[in-house]
Backbone:
């Protein structure tokens, strides 16, 4: 009998409405999904379909108007801001389309920024950062201010930062947006490696190179805020 | 503690990264602190100066008025006042002002009984250089150190001052110092005999009477008794004079403080504008920090440290600048407004004196509103969706 994998990311009834004056926009409509642990899934959809909002809700950055999110069996939707911050710090690593790097700080400083409120990074994390910089080909740029890095280098820096906390779930928002085809292949190779390490990966994209990659385990399509069946 | 140190390091880095904003806010804060500090330090120095001077005054000073103006008083009143209950001693004093047009300033000439049994007990101690007056020698003076310095005189030099239509030569035998800068800056001590001659005070008359009481708190009662005895007397109460000095400098300091309020308001408006107008870069940074797991409290604490460092540096620069301006440069411009005796007094160097309370008041006055104002926009930004901040739509 095949063992049923545990569900790492579960959401049901997710709805998110934004009010802009008298105009109300629905970004997510009754979204339900269940991503098994240790799998690499992709959510595709056109621009404005609600992909980033979905990732934001799953990462505990955006409070949904309705619905529930569970990460590794733990509901996070009704957690207070303080606890949702801890989820973002320890439970989920997120790679942002906008990179979310702080200009003026070096690459190494940016990577270790999540550990500042804990009193600075422990030595083990510093060692891990060095290893990841080597692995991602960025060791030579450790002391370079991030604004001097190329888009691809910043993309990789974002991935390193997401991995540093040892989070079991990795959420990636348009991870191939700044990459050429060769680098897309390298990125997918890397994501497959991370999956092999036991991490759960969920990437949003409208890039068919990623959607159609045969190594992707599952695909969802989001159109106008709803999962297309 | 480790958390705070890490956040302080981050905050210092932030203030370096936003150097333009840091310099603008720190500079404006330093300027406002400087203005308020200068008024406060000078007012307090003057208040302290007058209180020190007043502490050496007799409990009551009795003057005689003729046609509403001070006139010489007969020494015959000394035993009659001394006989009143509660009065421990009465002394006739000979002193007066001497105006030097060329210096546009007044000296205070004080006659002193230099005989060993009558001279002030601390006379040797206050004479910094030279010696005290010799009771058997006429024509000697002891001058305040600051006044001698102002006139370029030293022990051994001689000065000639007019007595009537002739000049009287006086030998400087000593320079005295005092914690009261006012005295060292304008007082000349000479024998009572010389003072009478110089000020043209006939024997048997005095400038005023110095009255000491067994219970200084009963000064009002004693003054009433003296007034009953001498209807033409004006009686100055030391405690009332202290209160008058306080009121005078509180009023002047208050007026200047009120004049500076627009500057403070302008600064607060500038600070509010700069601090509340969190730019897109700062909003994105707050969004990034929140997105990577910083809590709202972490963001606020980092911002608190960043602005506290700016405020502390700005405030300290302002206070140190004001200290130098007041106590080393003699507060040009400001001094004339607060002193009020610029045409009477040759020179005055306020004694450096800063209390912890003054620094605390200044720091609270300028730092707290600044730091508090800085937290509002940071709080507003850090309670929004991190993603919206990152994408610049919040």
Residues:
């Amino acid at each position: 009998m095949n063992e049923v994998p545990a569900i790492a990311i579960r959401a049901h009834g997710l709805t998110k409405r934004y009010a802009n004056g008298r105009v109300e926009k629905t970004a997510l409509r009754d979204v339900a999904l269940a991503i098994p642990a240790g799998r690499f899934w992709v959510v595709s959809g056109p621009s404005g379909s609600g992909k980033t909002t979905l990732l934001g809700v799953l990462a505990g950055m955006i409070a949904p108007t309705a619905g529930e999110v569970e990460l590794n069996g733990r509901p996070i939707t009704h957690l207070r801001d303080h606890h949702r911050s801890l989820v973002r710090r320890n439970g989920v690593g997120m790679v942002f389309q906008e990179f979310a790097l702080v200009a003026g700080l070096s690459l190494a400083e940016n990577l270790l920024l999540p550990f500042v409120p804990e009193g600075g990074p422990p030595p083990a994390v510093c060692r891990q950062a060095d290893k990841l910089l080597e692995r991602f080909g960025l060791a030579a740029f450790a002391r370079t201010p991030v604004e001097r890095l190329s888009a691809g280098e910043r993309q990789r820096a974002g991935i390193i930062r997401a991995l540093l906390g040892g989070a079991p779930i990795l959420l990636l928002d348009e991870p191939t947006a700044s990459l050429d085809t060769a680098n897309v292949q390298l990125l997918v190779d890397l994501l497959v490696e991370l999956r092999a390490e036991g991490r759960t990966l969920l990437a949003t994209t409208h890039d068919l190179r990623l959607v159609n990659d045969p190594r992707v385990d599952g695909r969802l399509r989001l159109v106008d805020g709803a999962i297309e069946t | 503690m480790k958390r705070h140190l890490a956040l302080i390091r981050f905050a210092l880095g932030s203030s370096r990264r936003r150097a333009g904003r840091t310099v603008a806010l720190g500079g404006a804060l330093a300027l406002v602190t400087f203005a308020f500090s200068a008024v406060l330090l000078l007012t307090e120095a003057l208040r302290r100066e007058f209180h020190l001077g007043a502490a050496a005054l007799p409990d009551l000073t009795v003057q005689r008025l003729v046609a509403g103006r001070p006139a010489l008083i007969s020494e015959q009143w000394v035993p009659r006042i001394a006989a009143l209950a509660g009065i421990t001693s009465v002394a006739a004093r000979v002193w007066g002002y001497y105006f030097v047009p060329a210096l546009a300033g007044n000296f205070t000439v004080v006659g002193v009984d230099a005989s060993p049994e009558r001279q002030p007990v601390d006379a040797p101690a206050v004479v910094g250089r030279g010696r005290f007056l010799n009771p058997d020698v006429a024509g000697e003076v002891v001058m305040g150190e600051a006044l001698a310095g102002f006139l370029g005189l030293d022990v051994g030099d001689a000065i000639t001052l007019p007595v009537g239509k002739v000049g009287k030569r006086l030998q400087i035998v000593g320079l005295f110092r005092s914690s009261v800068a006012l005295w060292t800056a304008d007082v000349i001590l000479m024998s009572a005999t010389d003072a009478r001659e110089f000020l043209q005070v006939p024997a048997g008359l005095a400038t005023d009477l110095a009255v000491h009481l067994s219970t200084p708190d009963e000064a009002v009662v004693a003054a009433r008794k003296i007034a009953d005895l001498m209807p033409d007397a004006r009686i100055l109460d030391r405690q009332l004079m202290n209160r008058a000095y306080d009121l005078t400098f509180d009023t002047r300091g208050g007026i200047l403080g009120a004049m500076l309020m627009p500057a403070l308001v302008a600064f607060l408006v500038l600070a509010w504008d700069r601090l509340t107008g969190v730019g897109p870069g700062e909003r994105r940074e707050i969004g990034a920090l929140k997105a990577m797991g910083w809590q709202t409290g972490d963001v606020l604490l980092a911002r608190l440290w960043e602005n506290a460092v700016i405020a502390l540096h700005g405030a300290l620069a302002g206070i140190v600048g004001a200290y130098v301006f007041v106590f080393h440069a003699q507060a040009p411009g400001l001094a004339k407004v607060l002193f009020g005796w610029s045409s009477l007094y040759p020179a005055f160097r306020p004694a450096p004196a800063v209390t912890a309370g003054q620094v605390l008041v200044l720091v609270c006055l300028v730092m707290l509103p600044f730091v508090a104002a800085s937290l509002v926009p940071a709080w507003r930004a850090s309670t929004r969706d991190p993603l919206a901040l990152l994408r610049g739509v919040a």
About this structure: Chain A has a mean pLDDT of 88. The helical segments of chain A are 51-58, 81-91, 107-112, 123-135, 151-164, 181-196, 208-211. Chain A has one domain: 38-63+81-227.
